[in-house]
Amino acid sequence: MSNALPTTRPLRILITNDDGINAPGLEIMHAIAEEVAGPDGEVWTVAPAFEQSGVGHCISYSHPTMIGQLGERRFAAEGSPADCVLAGVHDVMKDSPPDLVLSGVNRGNNSGENTMYSGTIGGAMEGALQGLPSIALSQYYGPGNVDLEDQFEASAVHGAALVKSLLQKADWGSRGGYRTFYSINFPPIPAAAVKGVLATSQGFREGVKFAVEPTRAPNGRRYLWIRGGRQDQPSAPGTDVQANMDGYISVTPMRADLTAGDAMASLKAAIE
């Protein structure tokens, strides 16, 4: 364990998401952050002005990002979640940077291959690249919670305690300069039915891929809708997907380093 962040003192927390400033999941995240920050802590929101689902770790490198204040410690930026973290760290909170970045709570899971597309993960990844403890939180949707009055019930009930536990006990160190961050996925069931928390790897849903669906507008122009695959497909034991399908909260340690370390030896043998 290294670089644990004590929760015995008030914290300054920056929250963002990819569903947009008015998303209900952001309200859940704000409540989680307030509990984690403590009564004397501060929660700052910098979230996209419009939905940014599926943008991954995109940043608005080639054009400026407009930002506006909507209320006390509440800002909306016309950019991606990663843009929002950059805005929060280097502009909104530049005189006293955050202790922690929380991204979410996403409407839908960011388990398995969804991780690579997720703007929620992108926000947490940018926080880690800025050297800050960062966590992405996502709420799986399915038959077990889609008809609940509060579809975010599992994350609302269990989120704050889990974040506190990670801050106190998890490894927040780095490898090769890339800091560890965490992805939490809450299962698609009521809060009382959650079986526990499991440490998992990123899963893979066999045969589940993003694709396009052609359509024509009334004026005859042709468009393509991006669509995902089934989210109820199983994955290997020990993965985030399977843990969520089995009723557990998954916690997956991640880094921005995409190197396939297991392929390095064979690559050296092939080219050196």
Automatic annotation (TrEMBL):
GO terms for molecular function: 3'-nucleotidase activity; 5'-nucleotidase activity; exopolyphosphatase activity; metal ion binding; nucleotide binding. It catalyses: a ribonucleoside 5'-phosphate + H2O = a ribonucleoside + phosphate. Signal peptide: none annotated. A divalent metal cation binds at D18, D19, S53, N106. One of its GO terms (cellular component) is cytoplasm. Its EC number is 3.1.3.5. Its cofactor is a divalent metal cation. Transmembrane segments: none annotated. It is found in: Cytoplasm. It is an enzyme of class 3 (hydrolase). Its main location: cytoplasm. Keywords: Cytoplasm, Hydrolase, Metal-binding, Nucleotide-binding. Binds 1 divalent metal cation per subunit. SUPFAM superfamilies: SurE-like. Residues 13-205 form the Survival protein SurE-like phosphatase/nucleotidase domain. Nucleotidase that shows phosphatase activity on nucleoside 5'-monophosphates. Belongs to the SurE nucleotidase family. PANTHER family: 5'-NUCLEOTIDASE SURE, 5'_3'-NUCLEOTIDASE SURE. This is 5'-nucleotidase SurE.
